[in-house]
Specification:
Structural class: alpha+beta
Strand content: 15-25%
Largest sheet: 5 strands, mixed
Distance between the termini: 33 Å
Shape: globular
Radius of gyration: 18 Å
Helix content: 40-55%
Strand order of the largest sheet: 2-4-5-7-6
Length: 212
Amino acid sequence: ADDKLRFFSTYSHDLKTPLSLLTMPLESLVVNDNRLPPSLRLQLEKIKIAIYNVLRTVGHSLDAAKLMTRNRRSILLPYDFSAFVLQVAEVYAIIFESYGMKLTTEIQNAVVAEIDPIQMEKVINNLLSNSIKHNLPGGTTHISLRAMVGKAELKISDDGLGAAPTLRQPLSRTNPWVLSSHGYGLGIVRELLRSNRAQLKIETRKGVGTSV
């Protein structure tokens, strides 16, 4: 299993590196070059989105491969979860603004949680990306964090389209890839949270929004 994971990691790196290098000049053209005709700008935007989708899929696949390796255990350490979430939110606030959306926070101070920071960052990134994807310009996403008895509750809520995300089939050794627009990403999120002794709960209403 370790040899297969090592091969897949190398393959993922070889695929992601040239694609990542493409996104930088492409992003600069789309955002900064006002001389581009609208039709060409639209085509470049479509190419950019396609590259990002490939990068995201490769990243999810690598995460799934790691989760299927039974001898890989998360190392959970006590973290200032409040500062951790605020740091991620500060970065995403700029991204939300670029899409004409708003990201607000209500973070209780000094909430400590035992987490794998790399995995938890992927969880929050995935959920915030989904929030952008299922909202409209002018929409708002709100992040709240509070301490409870023996645990912490992190909630990401938006007033978006209220898509109906499902986890579909669970990840397993015989079915590690869940190829659906919602279930694949959320399946990875759920397994990453399980590795951090956490649970994923979703509430969604069409036309009202989603809370995770």
